Every structure is written in C-alpha cells, then in structure tokens.
Model the fold of this input.
Amino acid sequence: MDLDEFALRIGHRYRQPELLRRALTHRSHGAANNERLEFLGDSVVNCAVALELYHRFPRLTEGELSRLRANLVNQGSLAAAARRFDLGAHLLLGEGEVRSGGARRPSILADAVEAVIGATFLDAGFDAARGVVRALLGDAIDTIDPATSGKDPKTLLQEYLQGRRMALPRYSVIGTSGEAHEQVFEVECAIAELGIRSVGAGSNRRSAEQEAARSAYELATRA
Done:
C-alpha cells in the first residue's frame, strides 16, 4: 500500500502518516481502525461543504443549502469519490472482507473517505482538511446545480437524454460479489449514442444503477 502516492493524489503531505494508515484501516483488520476518525471526519466534511456552498450560493435559504449539502455528502457521492481516487486499493481489510469484495462496498468506501478527512484535520487542521475535501469532492461541488440537486442521478440522466432526443440508457448487472447477506452489485450504464459506458457499485441493484447513472451523467455533461 503506497500511502505516499495516495497522499500526493489528494493533495496533502502527512506529518503523521500513521493517521492516514489508520484512516484506511477497516475494523475487520483489527482494533486500531478508522471508526473514530470516521466519526470526526463526518463533521468536518459537512462543515467544509457547508462553507463552500455558503459562499458559492449567497441567495439560497438554509433549507436549500441543506438540500445541496445532502446531495453532496452521502454514501453514494463519497463512495464515488473514493472510486475516482482508487481508495479501495489502499484499504486494509480483514481476510473475510477481502474475499467478499469489501474494497468495492460503498459503505466501506464512504466511511474511509470521512476517516481520511478526519485524519487530515488532526494532522494539520481545518484548512488542510478543507483542501482534501476540495480534492475529493471538488468536481461535484463545482458542477452542482440548485435547480436539479433534488433529483436522483437516474432521473437527471433520463431528462438530459430525453431533452436531446436520445435513447434512454441501458442498465445491466455485470457482476456480484460477497456473501448473500452483504452482496456488492456492479451495474453498467450504457449510452450508445454518446459512446458512454460507466460502472456503479452498490449493496443492491437499484443503488448500483444510481451510481452508474451518476458517472454517466458526469461524462455526458462534460462532453
């Protein structure tokens, strides 16, 4: 596990690298795990995102800002950020979690993102943690639209394609892993006219489809 490489990707050099190591250690690996850092990071990421939105949208009400933050800080969006930075490849998991595909499980990935942010806060304070939040969620923050943020990714993608008279995306399950009671589903979202194929993972088919749609929507709107 090359922690220096991962730290470089998220834009922070840790003075206490053991904090980052713990942030990437799941409870299945041992007692020195990331659960307390996750607790801390949850508050830090919500504060950092709230600050970004407060300055970005000066005319929005408290309720509207809360809705935007909930759209940015949730298991799906945090897990998607983890996948973009290949965080799963750096996780320390117990043997059972390794065998059951824990490195791809959205809940584990999202918790690890929060733990990494908590570790950064302890290592260097709020400004450093805010920088890591920007690195991990910056694209989502920069492109969030108050007019559409209440809609789920599949709805957004469908409306985007229909508005351009394109065929609806095709979703298909391409893989499953893990034990029966905690499976991870992998779903592909294909948009033939745009040449887009994106993959999402989730604890059920519906959540995996939403994650695949989220990635496809980002690709389609950047084209």
The mean pLDDT is 91. The beta strands are 170-177, 184-191, 196-202. The first strand starts at residue 170 and ends at 177. Residues 35-56 form the longest helix (22 residues).
